């Protein structure tokens, strides 16, 4: 036997996979009526992302509002809006650190 034939035997027949891969024919189909979710406020991007974008223009105040909404409004929050509020929280923390460092640094 040549090396090519031995290599062919170890790989198996073309198009077959070892059984541990679990290949099958077909695909899953979700049956039933599709679920419609309500549209997000603020042009469909959500209040959290809207506050995040506006925070760049209004001096970080909307970021602190987003932080308060995230902390105080846990039960009634749409899970699709949570990333925007988390972005506001991170931006508020970074802005606070920048303000503190800027206020305490010596003047040149």
From TrEMBL:
Residues 1-21 are annotated as: Disordered. InterPro entries: Ribosomal_eL20z-like. This is 60S ribosomal protein L18a-like protein. The chain crosses the membrane at residues 42-64, 84-103. Keywords: Membrane, Transmembrane, Transmembrane helix.
């Amino acid at each position: 036997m040549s090396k090519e034939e031995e290599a062919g035997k170890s790989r198996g027949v073309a198009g077959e996979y070892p059984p541990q891969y679990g290949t099958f024919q077909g695909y899953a189909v979700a049956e039933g009526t599709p679920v419609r979710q309500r549209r997000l406020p603020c042009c469909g991007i959500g209040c959290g992302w809207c506050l995040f974008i506006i925070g760049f223009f209004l001096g970080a105040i909307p970021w602190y509002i987003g932080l308060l909404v995230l902390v105080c409004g846990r039960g009634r929050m749409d899970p699709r809006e949570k990333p925007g509020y988390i972005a506001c929280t991170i931006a508020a923390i970074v802005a606070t650190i920048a303000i503190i460092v800027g206020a305490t640094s010596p003047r040149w």
